[in-house]
C-alpha cells in the first residue's frame, strides 16, 4: 500500500524555515483505517540560504558577480507501508541576480539536499550543479530545479515524520563566513 502526501511551498527569506506542520500533513483514504504518518519537516538554514559570488578583486558591492537566495521548495512524499520505505521528491526554488562584476550571462552554483535521521545524524547528502543563464533583457531569474529523490528505508514507518530535510547552497568557507557575518 502506498500513501502519498504533498509538500507545501514555503518562503525562506533568510531565516530558518520550517513548514508549519512539517512539509504537509497527509490525508488518508476514508475507507482505510491505517493511520497516515506525516511528511518530514524541511529547513532552509539562514546561513546557507544566501549565496554571494564575488570577483577575485574584492568584497565590495561593485565586486558582486551574482547573488542567489533560496525561496522555498515544492514536492511530495509517500510511504510504502509494505516495504517500510519513505520516498521524498523535492524541488528547491531560488532567485538569482547578476551583479555589477558579471562578465558572463551564464553562472554556475551548487545546492545541497540533506536528510537528518531522528537521532540527529545526517544520513544522506547530495550536491547538485546548476548552470543559470540570464536572458538578454533580465538580470534576475527565478529557478526551480528538477525533483531530487530521497529514499529512506524505515524499521518503523511511524518514525518517518521524525526525519528532517535540509536544503541550501553549497558554499565555500569564505561564502559561509560572509553570510554569518551579515545574518540578521
From TrEMBL:
Keywords assigned: Signal
UniProt keyword Signal present: yes
Signal sequence segment: 1-24
Protein name, entry field: Lipoprotein
Source organism of the structure: Thalassospira profundimaris
Amino acid at each position: 500500500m502506498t500513501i502519498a502526501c504533498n509538500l507545501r511551498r514555503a518562503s525562506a527569506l533568510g531565516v530558518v524555515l520550517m513548514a508549519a506542520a512539517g512539509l504537509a500533513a497527509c490525508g488518508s483514504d476514508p475507507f482505510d483505517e491505517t493511520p497516515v504518518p506525516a511528511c518530514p519537516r524541511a529547513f532552509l538554514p539562514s546561513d546557507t540560504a544566501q549565496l554571494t559570488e564575488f570577483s577575485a578583486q574584492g568584497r565590495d558591492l561593485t565586486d558582486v558577480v551574482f547573488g542567489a537566495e533560496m525561496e522555498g521548495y515544492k514536492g511530495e512524499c509517500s510511504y510504502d507501508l509494505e516495504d517500510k520505505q519513505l520516498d521524498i521528491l523535492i524541488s528547491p526554488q531560488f532567485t538569482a541576480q547578476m551583479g555589477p562584476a558579471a562578465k558572463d550571462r551564464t553562472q554556475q552554483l551548487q545546492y545541497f539536499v540533506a536528510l537528518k535521521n531522528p537521532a540527529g545524524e545526517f544520513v544522506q547528502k547530495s550536491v547538485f550543479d546548476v548552470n543559470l543563464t540570464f536572458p538578454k533583457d533580465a538580470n534576475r531569474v527565478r529557478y526551480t530545479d528538477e525533483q531530487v529523490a530521497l529514499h529512506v528505508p524505515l524499521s518503523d514507518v511511524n518514525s518517518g515524520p521524525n526525519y528532517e530535510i535540509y536544503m541550501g547552497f553549497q558554499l565555500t568557507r569564505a561564502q559561509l563566513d560572509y553570510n554569518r557575518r551579515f545574518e540578521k
